[in-house]
What does this fold into?
Amino acid sequence: MNLSELAQHLDLAISTVSRVLSGNAKKYRISETTAQRILAAAEEHNVIPDPLGASLRKGSLGMIGLLVPDITNPFFSHLARSIELELRDANIAVQLCDSSEEVETEARLFQKLLARRLDGLIIAPVGSDTRGLSDLIENSKMPIVVIDRVIPGLQIPSVSLDNAHAGKLAAEHLIKAGHRKIGCLRGSYESQSDQERLRGVQEAMAEAGLKGDDLSVAGKGSSRTASLDGARELLDRKDRPTAIVTLSGQGILAVLERATALGLAIPEQLSVIAFDEQPWSPFMNPPLTTISQPVAEMAGEAVKFLKAALAEKSDAPLKAAEKVLQASICERLSVGKPVISATK
Amino acid sequence: MNLSELAQHLDLAISTVSRVLSGNAKKYRISETTAQRILAAAEEHNVIPDPLGASLRKGSLGMIGLLVPDITNPFFSHLARSIELELRDANIAVQLCDSSEEVETEARLFQKLLARRLDGLIIAPVGSDTRGLSDLIENSKMPIVVIDRVIPGLQIPSVSLDNAHAGKLAAEHLIKAGHRKIGCLRGSYESQSDQERLRGVQEAMAEAGLKGDDLSVAGKGSSRTASLDGARELLDRKDRPTAIVTLSGQGILAVLERATALGLAIPEQLSVIAFDEQPWSPFMNPPLTTISQPVAEMAGEAVKFLKAALAEKSDAPLKAAEKVLQASICERLSVGKPVISATK
DNA sequence: TAGAACAGAACAATCGTTTGCGCCAGTGGA
DNA sequence: TCCACTGGCGCAAACGATTGTTCTGTTCTA
It folds into this structure.
């Protein structure tokens, strides 16, 4: 049953019913008796104003899109939960899209989200090759918040991690433990955060007086097999690094798998640090030293930005705003002193 | 720019533009030239029909709701990803809702989803106390598929795991290894799947001739602290079980944490089996023996049911349909022979 | 050459709300 | 008595599409 039927049934105008049901009764000076009558009837017949009509009229859907590379990645699922929770109170729904870490899929989904004319969008971009995405974003008049990445040259709000600092944190910890040869396992080749983290590692090594060829980097994808290939590349050789940093996702699992296969003891023969901290990190074999991101805080900032953007006049130009958060290190048992060159 | 503006600009009727842009040009015998002209202009001015108008007219939103207890739980995030992926091809969007494993929140969200007049709903209910939910579902005329649970007495499609069988699988494995005293850590007290799994464990024990007091059960919640309390209840006593089955979620982490604190070696002094299989299960300390659910398959079946329900006439009664899938066991190193009663 | 048949496009109703404005009836003041 | 004011509500125009029906020309047939 819809408003007009209810109105007819009560012998009132639709407008009156609408005003009462949308909670604007007194604003429009509907008498208390009439209001109660409508409320009671609505309750009885289970009448809820169809948001579709309202959306059409108001030009706002009450829904935003959330585009993530992989909802299966705990970082993003935590993000999604926090975001949905926060927006719920503002009566804003969240449409979920998963780009499977594929740049083209991401672009396609972005278009779909645009076509749906959502009120806004929170996107955690897949890759660093943000040209395509950058164009799409610029040509869209939709409030957008970028999370987990900064897109250079784009005037939009973003909340991200200081990835270089995070990488540095990991490397400094290893260097302090005595490591000189460090390996890094990238996730997707295109991931900008991985690149930044890598840069942080390089900086730390440079500051410690280590040369470029003390660093080896591998990994061309975030799938299990790609990660395993990368792990193999790092570990299956004579001059293998004494410590590995896995820069994202579940790369750590590949490193552990390969190390197990090679019979390498951790941390005696190989030290590892993993991005990101997970509930099970303390229970891995060995308990993992990890770099931890403030996920909930990131979600909160993103929502704050988004709400601000939604409050703006829709034809106002996108505002730039940048929030950069810091990672921290969780020290456990997966880092030890390097072996005295057992391979020499 | 919308269809009517474009129509005006081209000096054509809105209807013609609409027919072309919705791909029904030839069905309505629009001439090739006109069609091309419209297509070109639409491209140039970036005109996409607003789905809102279309939805209003067609009475369908092209979107379903997905209501899960905890998107952070890998089981549900995998589910979400599979579902979103499959529905994407049918041009159906997914709205995500997370009930935080709270029955009241779940009910509230359910109402919200109903109010949004989505095309359908896939719900993985939180608890076994499905009375409230059951009423809500019955009174709604929305196509609904229940996943991960069967709601008794309700004529709607559901896809679930044979939880009793899964529990039996775990218990039989332990019994075969020689265990006589088994403990189970529940997640939420209300979780129906946990109860079923528990029933399976009991059955297996009964069949092996074990008595009721050989089984101890604990756990009143899925939060970390609740799980820890449960783990403590099971492990901090003289006659503690020689083996533990964690019936859901991340209970296994609590057991590991408590076992570590007590200095219990696994599997020498304590055997464990965990629901569910995870990517990191092989890399835990020790590698975990787990019960694995066919997540992707469950998602596929749910989507199949949902699509069927969407295709039905909307005023047709909900059809019952039930798909029950089987779990399997992944044997690793967390199960061993029981200690010869070190506590005797 | 009239009539049918058909291609091509316009008309207008419809989906369900929201909201600016106008109408009517009391009430109080002058 | 007349006017101004206000409380209470209805009217009707949006919002943006879809689609059954109708209208106008052609072209083909008899």
Observations:
- Residues 2-4, 14-15, 18-19, 22, 24, 28, 49-58 of chain A lie near DNA strand C (CB under 10 Å from a C1').
- Chain A touches chain B through 51 residues (CB under 8 Å).
